[in-house]
Design goal:
By secondary structure, the protein is mainly α. Helices cover 75% and strands 0% of the residues. The protein contains 10 helices and no strands. It starts with a helix and ends with a helix.
Length: 183
């Protein structure tokens, strides 16, 4: 990723701390990044494209830092816990939001990519099961839905549940899904 793309991603992340995504304009992103509007459109179709690339970048960073599914789940939920305002500004008050669907789609793609990874250094049980599945795309969506669904439930409960309890529940759910897909 080049510096300009990184600067636009960081600008959007900064603005999301204080403002709902629907109310953010390309001009505001450009002002925060200290870059011209023409530069924005050189790299992105619109603010939704930037958002997708930002989410993809963050999820891939978490994947790179994770050695196991447990690490991935822990880091993902901890990241969302540390960025509650951003998550709230992206998701609105409803699991029916477009963002919810996008998060599942993006996480599913990350899981599929991990399952098909050539380097196979960090092959997880989930990645192996997705890879070996008769329908890898569907299985990756199921896992992504479990992880993102747990995060939405946490948000809908105003983050009153301790992070570790959410992490443990999501891990348990993923393990149960994993053992069910083997049978």
């Amino acid at each position: 990723m080049n510096r300009t793309v990184r600067d636009f991603q960081n600008a959007l992340a900064t603005i999301l701390e204080t403002k709902p995504f629907e109310k953010i304009t390309v001009d505001q992103i450009c002002n925060e990044a200290l870059l011209h509007r023409s530069s924005f459109y050189r790299y992105f179709h619109d603010k939704y494209d930037l958002l997708e690339q930002l989410i993809n970048t963050r999820l891939n960073q978490i994947v790179e830092e994770s050695d196991t599914e447990d690490d991935f789940i822990q880091l993902t939920i901890s990241y969302l816990g540390n960025h509650k305002k951003v998550f709230r500004h992206l998701s609105g008050d409803s699991a029916n939001s477009t963002f919810y669907t996008e998060m599942i789609r993006i996480l599913s793609e990350v899981l599929l990519k991990q399952a098909d990874s050539e380097r196979q250094v960090k092959v997880s049980e989930v990645a192996k099961e997705i890879h070996d599945s008769s329908n890898p795309e569907l299985l990756s969506y199921v896992y992504a839905g479990a992880i993102i669904g747990g995060c939405y439930w946490w948000q809908m409960n105003s983050y009153d549940v301790p992070v570790q309890k959410v992490v443990d529940f999501v891990k348990q759910t993923v393990l149960q899904l994993s053992s069910a897909s083997i049978q």
